[in-house]
Amino acid sequence: MSDLHWHDTGSGRLPVFLHGGFLDHRMWEDQIPAFAADHRVIAPDARGHGRSSNASGPYRHGDDFAALLRHLDTGPATPTWCAASTR
């Protein structure tokens, strides 16, 4: 997991904050302290974003996300993300 960067703080139930395109985990910097008061919060930088390295071959964000949760031995997590939509 040395190629991915993540922010991990707090304890308790686990939301995982996933950033939008062209951003990194800092997009959640206002929410993380509030949730970390009674949750364990993980906010990763996707490959090629923030402090994570660029991909050296094909990859899927979902596979990276699952591998990170296994690496951290988190158990169940609730993914939280922001998406832009025209609807």
Automatic annotation (TrEMBL):
Superkingdom to which the source organism belongs: Bacteria
Example GO molecular function: hydrolase activity
Keywords, sorted A to Z: Hydrolase
Keyword ATP-binding: no
Residue stretches making up the AB hydrolase-1 domain: 16-76
Entry-linked InterPro entries: AB_hydrolase_1, AB_hydrolase_fold
Name by which UniProt lists this protein: Alpha/beta fold hydrolase
Organism: Glycomyces niveus
